[in-house]
């Protein structure tokens, strides 16, 4: 039987290893940075929560970029929770950064999604900041080399995806490239999923146009390359999350690589999310596995999807309650040019899991 000092030593070692496993997303704790804190001096970098030493160094040499990175952390948190609001796992794990719940520390498909979204979001936010002029270090994206169709012309200010990818990957991948950053398998998994996130971001570049012409005839369109909104990128990643591939870390040739667990006759595809550990069902609270359970979660009685009361409540049943809503109604347009509305109250029935 182990002595008390041995047990304490083992516990401290376990906590240290868990901390290292998800060091790559600790920077998401920047979402809690007070809005009044301005990072304009190098000594401010040490005050930022969740940064590893290599990120602190990047902060010191790229002070102007930090406001955008803090904004990206807030976007990840908001977008993740909104994307999974209709599922048992609703991205609650991200609330406790930098001390994340075990579901993000164990190499689950949930951590695969969070790493992919984080990598996409930081590059997305930087690319957009170049366009809006919030960063002096960069400007609009390059004008495309291909010739547009008749009636179209390149112009405007496209999102600077190249700069976003370069600086975003440098910051978000820095923790996984440190010597003490968890197991080799977890490093490979996180780096792979981060790259998938950036790949989805690159595929989200589309042509956007603005019309010109007499009386809105749209005889000429000025066009540029712009990114889709982050919420659309998150939905693409959610689809990949639902079809993610479980992998194992095993020798392939002269080194160990990640290979699909059940179909190891093929290599891992570049566009698929991968995970090492199976997830809990998230039905009941289990602190060891990082599940907060679905008790008191709102469900949809008429839905057949993941937000249905049967699936969300895991068969435990649900309780109804009523809620009064005050809405604008009977709106009238007055010439010219304002609208007046009345306020109407209605009662709706809601349901929460037992």
TrEMBL record:
<dbReference type="InterPro" id="IPR043158">
    <property type="entry name" value="Wnt_C"/>
</dbReference>
<dbReference type="GO" id="GO:0005615">
    <property type="term" value="C:extracellular space"/>
</dbReference>
<comment type="function">
    <text>Ligand for members of the frizzled family of seven transmembrane receptors.</text>
</comment>
<keyword id="KW-0449">Lipoprotein</keyword>
<keyword id="KW-0325">Glycoprotein</keyword>
<dbReference type="GO" id="GO:0048884">
    <property type="term" value="P:neuromast development"/>
</dbReference>
<keyword id="KW-1015">Disulfide bond</keyword>
<dbReference type="GO" id="GO:0042074">
    <property type="term" value="P:cell migration involved in gastrulation"/>
</dbReference>
<dbReference type="GO" id="GO:0060070">
    <property type="term" value="P:canonical Wnt signaling pathway"/>
</dbReference>
<comment type="similarity">
    <text>Belongs to the Wnt family.</text>
</comment>
<dbReference type="GO" id="GO:0030182">
    <property type="term" value="P:neuron differentiation"/>
</dbReference>
<dbReference type="GO" id="GO:0048703">
    <property type="term" value="P:embryonic viscerocranium morphogenesis"/>
</dbReference>
<protein>
    <recommendedName>
        <fullName>Protein Wnt</fullName>
    </recommendedName>
</protein>
<dbReference type="Pfam" id="PF00110">
    <property type="entry name" value="wnt"/>
</dbReference>
<dbReference type="GO" id="GO:0005109">
    <property type="term" value="F:frizzled binding"/>
</dbReference>
<dbReference type="GO" id="GO:0060037">
    <property type="term" value="P:pharyngeal system development"/>
</dbReference>
<keyword id="KW-0217">Developmental protein</keyword>
<dbReference type="GO" id="GO:0045165">
    <property type="term" value="P:cell fate commitment"/>
</dbReference>
<keyword id="KW-0732">Signal</keyword>
<dbReference type="InterPro" id="IPR018161">
    <property type="entry name" value="Wnt_CS"/>
</dbReference>
<keyword id="KW-0879">Wnt signaling pathway</keyword>
<keyword id="KW-0272">Extracellular matrix</keyword>
<keyword id="KW-0964">Secreted</keyword>
<dbReference type="InterPro" id="IPR005817">
    <property type="entry name" value="Wnt"/>
</dbReference>
<dbReference type="GO" id="GO:0001947">
    <property type="term" value="P:heart looping"/>
</dbReference>
<feature type="signal peptide">
    <location>
        <begin position="1"/>
        <end position="24"/>
    </location>
</feature>
<dbReference type="GO" id="GO:0005125">
    <property type="term" value="F:cytokine activity"/>
</dbReference>
């Amino acid at each position: 039987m182990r002595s008390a000092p041995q047990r304490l030593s083992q516990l401290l070692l376990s906590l240290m290893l868990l901390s290292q496993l998800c060091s790559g997303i600790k920077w998401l704790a920047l979402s809690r940075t007070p809005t009044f804190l301005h990072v304009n001096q190098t000594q401010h970098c040490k005050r930022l929560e969740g940064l590893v030493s290599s990120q602190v160094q990047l902060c010191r040499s790229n002070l102007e970029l930090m406001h955008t990175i803090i904004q990206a952390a807030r976007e990840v948190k908001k977008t993740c929770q909104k994307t999974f609001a209709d599922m048992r796992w609703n991205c609650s794990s991200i609330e406790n950064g930098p001390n994340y719940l075990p579901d993000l520390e164990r190499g689950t498909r949930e951590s695969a999604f969070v790493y992919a979204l984080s990598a996409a979001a930081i590059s997305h936010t930087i690319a957009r900041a170049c366009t809006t002029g919030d960063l002096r270090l960069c400007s609009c994206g390059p004008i495309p080399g291909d010739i547009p169709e008749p009636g179209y012309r390149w112009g405007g200010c496209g999102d600077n995806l190249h700069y976003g990818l370069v600086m975003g990957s440098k910051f978000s991948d820095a923790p996984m490239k440190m010597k003490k950053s968890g197991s080799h398998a977890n490093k490979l998994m996180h780096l792979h999923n981060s790259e998938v996130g950036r790949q989805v971001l690159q595929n989200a570049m589309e042509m956007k146009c603005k019309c010109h012409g007499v009386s809105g005839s749209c005889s000429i369109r000025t066009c540029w390359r712009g990114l889709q909104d982050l919420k659309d990128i998150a939905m693409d990643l959610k689809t990949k999350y639902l079809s993610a591939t479980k992998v194992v870390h095993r020798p392939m040739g002269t080194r160990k690589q990640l290979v699909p667990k059940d179909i190891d006759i093929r290599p891992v595809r570049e566009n698929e999310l991968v995970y090492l550990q199976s997830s809990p069902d998230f039905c009941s609270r289990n602190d060891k596995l990082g599940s907060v359970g679905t008790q008191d979660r709102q469900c949809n009685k008429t839905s057949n999807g993941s937000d249905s009361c049967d699936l969300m409540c895991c068969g435990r049943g649900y309780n109804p309650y009523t809620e009064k809503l005050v809405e604008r109604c009977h709106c009238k347009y007055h010439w010219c040019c304002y609208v007046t509305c009345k306020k109407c109250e209605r009662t709706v029935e809601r349901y929460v899991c037992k």
